[in-house]
Design goal:
Elements lengths: L18 E2 L5 E6 L12 E10 L4 E4 H4 L3 E4 L5 H7 L7 E6 L19 E11 L18 E2 L5 E6 L12 E10 L4 E4 H4 L3 E4 L6 H7 L7 E6 L18 E11 L22 E2 L5 E6 L12 E10 L4 E4 H4 L3 E4 L5 H7 L7 E6 L19 E10 L2
Antiparallel strand pairs: 1-2, 2-6, 3-4, 3-5, 3-7, 6-7, 8-9, 9-13, 10-11, 10-12, 10-14, 13-14, 15-16, 16-20, 17-18, 17-19, 17-21, 20-21
Length: 386
């Protein structure tokens, strides 16, 4: 049964008897747990929670909705990732999370609360994460690796069928595991047994775009991707900095789609209308059809969508609708305007986005064939998750 939690009396600041970690996270056990094991940083946990700003305003509560929530600990704010690892099953704990371990003083995520936050969390279950793939022996490229003029290095781990290779706008299905240069695991589709599918010319990691075009079906290859071909030295929030290492297995790919009949541009393609919603980043959007879902995808979620894209002069440059094939991809692997915008949606919703160049491919795209400047997309969110 759902109930509205009462605002804690100590919501404004951690009391003197709270535990404080080196990061600044403060917490206090409200109810002792019955378990003995604590979750790891990649484990999936099931919890009830309620969150307040320091002035006592509740901004979210699974308890009030009457619905527990499950998530991997490496897919949430740092204060949760660190804090829930202190808990055992059955425990209820209060956390005082400083802004730098939450969404910041000026959140980039639409609708996220700013500043210091207070959470009550009750831990119900822990699902251990699968064992990660073995760490590569070489975290820097060996002398024997193939090297391209861009600085991308690679080494074949298992030969493929030796046939055709993907083109720059092909749709590929692949398993991958990624690490930072210090060996920290980033992400692995292998662990989740859920391959990724994406269109090469919509991937923000240039090293992926270049590297996958070297592979044949069935091939396994390791890539050492310099920062310039990854997320850069000043990556967007949540993206890793510096050089990256990825192991890829190319499962399938489809040749570049045949030219589709253009879908007429919207009447308001040239600029966002006055009744559109605008975020602080400059992204504008308007709901075309309300959805039936309740949950919004997270930045790390995979989504299945239909979409059509136009330049401001009304020229269609891409459309899954025209091809009759929806596409799935992880939200943190596409242009910034999509990463931010699709998080505003629920399943079944159709929304139009006006994406400024800085949140798309830029005014002078470095990627061959990418459209320049402000872009307009109609997006239908079909499904969240694989």
């Amino acid at each position: 049964m759902s109930k509205t939690p009462v605002t804690p009396e100590d919501v404004a600041a951690a009391p003197a008897d709270a535990e404080v970690t080196d990061s600044g996270l403060a917490s206090k056990v409200l109810t002792a747990g019955s378990g003995s094991e604590k979750p790891g940083p990649r484990d999936t946990v099931e919890v009830h929670y309620s969150g307040w700003t320091t002035d006592g305003k509740m901004f979210d509560s699974s308890e009030a909705r009457g619905e527990k929530i499950s998530f991997p600990l490496n897919g949430v704010i740092p204060g949760w990732t660190e804090g829930v690892q202190l808990m055992v099953v059955g425990e209820k704990r209060r956390f005082w999370i400083p802004a730098e371990l939450a969404y910041g003083e000026k959140p980039s995520s639409p609708g996220a609360p700013c500043g210091d936050l207070t959470f009550d969390v009750e831990l119900f279950s822990i699902e251990a994460a699968p064992e990660p793939p073995a760490l590569p022996n070489n975290l820097t490229a060996p002398d024997s690796a193939e090297k391209s003029s861009t600085g991308l290095a690679s080494e074949v781990l298992e030969a493929g069928d030796g046939g055709a290779k993907p083109g720059p706008s092909d749709i590929v299905a692949a398993h991958f595991t990624g690490w930072l240069e210090d060996g920290t695991l980033l992400e692995s589709t292998v662990m989740n047994n859920k391959p990724a599918q994406f269109k090469l010319d919509q991937v923000s990691i240039k090293g992926w775009v270049e590297g996958l075009q070297l592979m044949t079906k069935g091939e396994k290859r390791r890539f050492w991707i310099p920062a310039a071909l990854g997320f850069g030295e000043n990556p967007p929030p949540g993206a890793p900095m510096g050089n990256l290492i990825f192991d890829f297995e190319l499962l399938e790919f489809q040749g570049a789609p045949k030219a589709a009949e253009p879908i007429p541009a919207p009447d308001d393609v040239a600029s966002a209308p006055s009744d559109s919603d605008a975020t602080k980043s400059g992204l504008s959007s308007k709901v075309l059809e309300a959805g039936s879902g309740k949950k919004h995808p997270k930045e790390t979620d995979e989504v299945l969508v239909h979409y059509t894209g136009w330049t401001k002069d009304g020229k269609m440059f891409d459309s899954s609708v025209a091809r009759g094939e929806p596409i799935s991809f992880p939200l943190n692997g596409v242009i910034a305007g999509w990463t931010e915008g699709v998080q505003l949606m629920v399943e079944g919703e159709k929304r139009r986005f006006w994406i400024p160049g800085k949140l798309a491919y830029g005014e002078t795209p470095s990627r061959p064939g990418a459209p320049a400047g402000t872009l307009v997309f109609d997006v239908e969110l079909i499904k969240i998750g694989g």
